[in-house]
Amino acid sequence: MKKRYLLFLFCSMLFLTQLTSAQNGLKTINYQAVARNANGTALANESIKVRISILGGSADGPVQYQETHDAITNQLGLFNLQIGAGVPVSGTFSAVPWANANQYIKVEAATGGGSFQVLGTSPLASVPFALYAANGNPGPAGPAGPVGPAGPVGPQGVQGPAGPMGLPGVAGAVGPVGPAGPVGPAGVAGPAGPIGPVGPVGPAGPQGNINGVSAGGDLSGTYPNPAVAKLQGIPVSNTAPLAGQLLKFDGTQWVAGAAGGGLTLPYVATDNNAATLFSITNNGDGTSLEGVNNTATSSIAAMRGIVSSTAPGGFSSGMRGINNGTGGLGIGVWGSQNGSGWGVYGVTPNGLGVYGNASANGIGVYANSNTGTGLTATSNNGIPASISIFNNANNNNALSVNSVGNGTVVNVTTSGNGAGILSSSGAGFAVHGITSAVTSAGVVGDNNGGGEAVVGRTTSDIAGAVVGRNDGGGYGVRGFITTNNTGTGIGVLGQVGLNNGTGRAGRFENYNTANTAGNTLEVETNGNGNIPDNTQGNAASFLVNNTNSVAAAVRSEVKTIFGNFGAAGVFGISSGTGGFAGLFHASNTSGNGPALVAITDGNGNAITANASKDGNAVEANIDGAGNALYAWVPSFATGRAGKFDIFNTANTSDAITVTTAGNGIAGNFKVDKVTGTSPAVKGEVNSQFSNFGTAGVYGVSSGTGGFGGLFYASHPAGNGPALIAIANGNGNGITANASNGGDGVETTADGSGNALYSWVPNFGNGRAARLVNYNDANNNPVLQVENHNISSNLAVFKAGDPGTVNVARINSAGKGFFNGGTQNSGADVAEAFDVTGNVQQYEPGDVMVIAADVDRTIEKSSEAYSSLVVGVYATKPGVLLTEEDIETDISSKVPLGVVGVIPTKVCNENGAIHRGDLLVTASQPGYAMKADLNKLKPGQAIGKALQEFDGAQGKIKVLVNVR
């Protein structure tokens, strides 16, 4: 079956729908798509299975809900389903956390009972998140604000990166039919149509004839009598067969041959069979198989068995004789010779010529002689005899030699340079000499010339050449000097290197873990030492006397799991009031090697130094131009060059103090890597307090000049900031305070950049800047902007995304320009006026008229239908106009509202007031009343009432617009 692939075209909108079931109240999402095969052809009237998964957080996030649908496409391949109404697989649709607003939908499909194939994963559009609103109480819709004027088109910004492909929109209306395009390539052949009905049988054709036609294949000649020339393509011989013969393949053709029967010599055959190929059984007294050779040629064999493999299995044999008799007279293999030759002769280059084995208590090989030699073994180049025991449990002697006479039991002589007796042992004694007589010795070695009396040699890795053992209170080995006073005598001499040997000259071991009473090696001297020549007079002196050597003069090792005091490879003690517990002196003035190297391959410290009193744990000084202390990490390591810790919480001392009396830098830190991303200095404090000085980095300038901190990005081509401060918590990135007359923060720009640039990234929710004055007694402005260039602006404000354009500015004269207009919390436009009398006699809502006696002065209205009316004492003006300078105190003036909605004092002097009534001045001072249109003259109307009023006196909102 041809495999199909489903391609889904998402609709442009996912609709939120409410199922009509009143019992469950479930909500679903309508989903519509078109199913197509790999060639883009719509799958019409097809049954498909769709699996929908709602994923959380990302396209590969966890499955929050999953369901399946069985759908049938229409003639256009279109199908519809409702997400949330399918067969649940995991989770519940109602429990999807729509409030997170980061859900993804994953669509999979299968056809013909096949497996699901992932068709894509896309973020859900905003509409489905209306599902979240079902969990709360939606508030009332607010009023639509007025549409502001369109701002000027800003410059074209830099094109941003392409966003993710959105869901395909709903198919538009079908356009006019275009001209026919070129014929495309032939499509994939469609499925075969149904078989049509069988047509009528046609008339019979003329009868055929193959006579005279040439035969083919294994046949030759012509029909109707062809001949068999081949069998399966192999030629058949033309020779006629005889009676009883069979057709056989001789490697080239099929030929007639004998049917078989007798054995023709010589007979050679090869077979691969695990069974016995040739077996003859004789139940009589005769020989079952006999081979006779009558020639006199050398090295002939009457019978020969050959194992042709060069690596046969164990105990493989060319000839094997087996005698199943259980008595003592049977013979497995019997070789006899009537003359002086060999009864049995075995030859092998490396193996066993003759092998005799007694599997029980018998004798493998038995040699006996009455007067001659029972066994003689000789060899020109090999070993005459080898006697071994290979059973680890066999405690018998490999060779037992006994004598009841007085002669030497074993007499070994040699005229060459070899050893008289060479004895070796794996676990026992190579030579074990025992004696019970006082006058005798287990082993005696005499030196009558210049040789050694006793020499012990070993090639073993674990055993010794000479062992001195003491089971009492004496010495295991004792070497001493009795009469030599020249200083050249040696009590015990251990040497290595003779004849290019590579062992140890001496080794001392203690195998008793409970032995703590004695030292494994003790070296003691009662001498005074030799100060002029410290190579003499020491308790012990070690020297590697080779300038090309890399060996250590002293190597000491302790192998323990404990770190107790004294458990050390070298334990040096200075028990007097002076001296050093250890002294390492690189005495060659031309040498470059260190006086001391400490290396640890584990997790411990290479050097641990501790001063239990007031001294320094480590004191390092330098008499030359080097470093008193130089710590470094090689290129292949990942550790630190230095670390300083104080673990005592009550210790208030510095973890590290660096002081210099010179003009150099007290501490210089550098990350010398152009691609490095680590800081040169990292200071960290882990504290819950924000006290003064509790800081990751604390810089102090204690003189009359200098800086508490200086951050200098010195590369002129660099783009990195000199200082970055980040706070992941709720604290400030930077807190700056000047406790005297200085500035908390001073920023300058010597180039064309910004002295201060604060911004919020596209994922942030904070403010770019906030300036607050918390001191209510501080009369200074929160923000002061100065511009000493009168031709430029005081401030420019930009807006827009991605490009920004100027939307507001304040020029150097203090004039403001706003592209989008202004919006104020007040509801009117007012201007400051002087008033007659005391300003305290006026209140917001008073109807004001032009004063008759003073210029540019107003006062309360006091007569009806006054043509001098100019406005109302504004309660909260949105814009306050004044002819005064911005620094002038205008608290003695009244804000006169001339245009806008103003709470106004009214009365019922002319009846109840209704919305839309024109208002004029009343006879009551400062009050307005309903106007009689028959009496109204131009310039008398204050404005229109915006509220109903039927009381005696009060305030209502009035749209003031004197006319």
Short description:
By secondary structure, the chain is an all-beta fold.
Report the span from N to C terminus: 90 Å
**Overall pLDDT level:** 80
Main pleated-sheet profile:
5 strands, antiparallel
Helical residue percent band: under 10%
Give me the secondary-structure category: mainly beta
Low-confidence residue ranges: 1-5, 7-26, 127-137
Q: Which outline best applies?
A: flat
Order of helices and strands, N to C?
EEEEEEEEHEEEEEEEEEEEEEEEEEEE
What do you see in this structure?
There is one protein chain. The protein has 963 residues and is an all-beta fold. The protein is 0% helix and 15% strand. It contains 1 helix and 27 strands. The chain has one helix spanning 130-133, and strands spanning 16-18, 27-34, 47-56, 63-72, 78-83, 87-90, 103-111, 117-123, 219-220, 227-228, 230-231, 234-235, 246-249, 254-257, 795-799, 805-810, 816-818, 828-835, 847-850, 857-860, 869-873, 879-881, 894-907, 918-921, 928-930, 943-945, 953-961. A hairpin with a 6-residue loop joins strand 3 (47-56) and strand 4 (63-72). The longest helix has 4 residues, at 130-133. Mean pLDDT is 80; it is low at 1-5, 7-26 and 127-137.
Keywords:
963 residues; mainly beta; five-stranded mixed barrel; 1 helix; 0% helix; 15% strand; disordered N terminus
Mind sketching the topology for me?
Layout: E1 16-18, E2 27-34, E3 47-56, E4 63-72, E5 78-83, E6 87-90, E7 103-111, E8 117-123, H1 130-133, E9 219-220, E10 227-228, E11 230-231, E12 234-235, E13 246-249, E14 254-257, E15 795-799, E16 805-810, E17 816-818, E18 828-835, E19 847-850, E20 857-860, E21 869-873, E22 879-881, E23 894-907, E24 918-921, E25 928-930, E26 943-945, E27 953-961
Parallel strand pairs: 18-20, 18-22
Antiparallel strand pairs: 1-2, 2-5, 3-4, 3-7, 4-6, 7-8, 9-10, 11-12, 13-14, 15-16, 16-17, 18-23, 19-20, 19-21, 21-23, 23-27, 24-25, 24-26, 26-27
